[in-house]
Write a structure and sequence with these properties.
Layout lengths: L2 E4 L2 E4 L4 E4 H4 E2 L15 E3 L15 E2 L8 E3 L4 E4 L8 E3 L4 E3 L3 E6 L8 H5 L2 H9 L11 H4 L3 E4 L2 H40 E8 L2 E5 L3 E3 L4 E6 L5 E2 L4 E4 L15 E3 L16 E4 L1 E2 L7 E3 L7 E2 L3 E6 L6 H9 L1 H8 L9 E2 L2 H6 L1 E3 L3 H39 L1
């Protein structure tokens, strides 16, 4: 018997019907000649579809110049046929027109329309699309090739039950995302309330004036050091953190390179808990990411990172990390970016000149203690999101 195990129970698929994707889904070929007169308000390009997101959340307005004419309606799935490995497939919640690099998909009578987004947002379907894409730097896949994708479908009443289960999972994920966003904004609001006050006059922080003394970062540091510039390898004793390891506010050690020379040569670049790592070079929009080092064991850091060691009696590392990743702090930091280049840079002297509000150390620690409690809840919610998304992907993959 053909059964599909899902978390301790199974679905009997022995009476499901094997079908081709093209038997239950079609590509409407509707076009719009005059979007304004036809009251079209939304224009969608590939850039408006987020990878692995079932929802179409963004669009451009019809006022912007466009050559797009392909029409879609509410409930259609917009599939990014160019570079299918980006895994872009979202269900439209509004009518509009879209790019020719997007395939519009609509369910036939045999398929419950609410199931189509899940069939398409499936690793198996994406793998099939990637395999059947053609072209060099920008491969594309045609609907006629996707139409040969094979899947099994149950009777209509069971389709409805599966649809309820999957959309309930999506609803839970969206609610968890909303909770996480509120916790994030609560942290920012708490920090801003404690540090700034609104001022109509131009202040150091735009229209936010500091409630506390303002100092240059260099005056509150013991050390400001560029990382090691020696060669890296896949093997070695000392992992070397690089720009991809430094995220906004936290450290990601899932992808590491290693120092391949004598260990003694790296001793001056061994990180200590409480050190701040600053990403001094990256694309114009990404340079300036900062995180707090709190890992166990020996780690070093590469030359495109800068280590900041605070004067502990003046500046709490956790406070500095939060400030540098706050909206106000990050905006201040990125004013020092080298303009007009693909690989932007912020040098050590610019960091020394960065101004920041500096409450007394006890105030900093008390504030960060409150923020830490919110952050712990944020982490727990994130873990729930990851687990729920993983379960959702597993169910979709096993059912379809």
């Amino acid at each position: 018997m053909n059964k599909c195990p899902i978390n301790g129970f199974s679905i009997d698929k022995s009476d499901w019907t094997k079908v081709l994707f093209g038997d239950v889904v079609f590509e409407p070929k509707e076009s719009v000649k005059d979007p304004v007169n036809e009251n079209i308000e939304h224009v969608v390009g590939l850039e408006h579809i987020d990878s692995e997101d079932i929802y179409l959340r963004r669009s451009a307005s019809i006022e912007e110049n466009t050559t797009f004419s392909k029409k879609f309606v509410i409930g259609d799935v917009l599939f990014g046929r160019r570079r299918a490995y980006l895994k872009k497939a979202a269900q439209a919640a509004f009518d509009g027109i879209c790019s020719g690099d997007i395939t519009v998909m609509r369910a036939r009578e045999a398929l419950l329309p609410e199931l189509l987004p899940f069939i398409v947002n499936n690793e198996k379907f994406f793998d099939y699309a990637i395999t059947h894409s053609a072209g060099g730097l920008s491969p594309r896949v045609k609907f006629k090739d996707l139409s040969n994708y094979e899947l099994s479908l149950p009777a209509r009443d069971l389709q409805e039950e599966i649809s309820k289960l999957l959309w309930a999972g999506e609803d839970l994920i969206q609610k968890l995302l909303c909770v996480r966003n509120k916790l994030h904004f609560t942290k920012e609001a708490l920090f801003k309330e404690a540090i700034y006050e609104f001022s109509e006059e131009l202040a150091d922080f735009g229209h936010l004036a500091s409630k506390h003394p303002v100092v240059k970062l260099g005056d509150a540091l013991d050390t400001l050091q560029y990382g090691i510039s020696e060669s890296l390898d896949e093997v070695g004793e000392i992992p070397v953190l690089r720009m991809n390891n430094v995220q906004e506010g936290y450290l990601d050690v899932s992808d590491l390179k290693y120092y391949s020379a004598n260990e003694n040569e790296v001793d001056n670049f061994i990180l200590n808990k409480g050190d701040i790592l600053f990403n001094r070079t990256n694309s114009f929009d990404l340079v300036g990411k900062t995180c707090l080092f709190c890992e166990e064991g020996k780690y070093s850091f590469a030359s495109y990172l800068i280590r900041l060691v605070t004067k502990k009696h003046l500046l709490d590392p956790d406070y500095l990390n939060f400030y540098m990743n706050s909206n106000v702090g990050l905006a201040k930091i990125r004013k020092y970016r080298t303009p007009g280049v693909s690989q932007s840079n912020i040098n050590a002297q610019s960091l020394r000149n960065l101004v920041l509000p500096l409450p007394d150390i006890d105030f900093q620690k008390e504030l960060m203690g409150k923020i830490k409690k919110i952050r712990e809840n944020e982490i727990r919610v994130t873990e729930n999101i990851v687990d729920t998304e993983s379960l959702q992907r597993t169910i979709i993959s096993q059912v379809f």
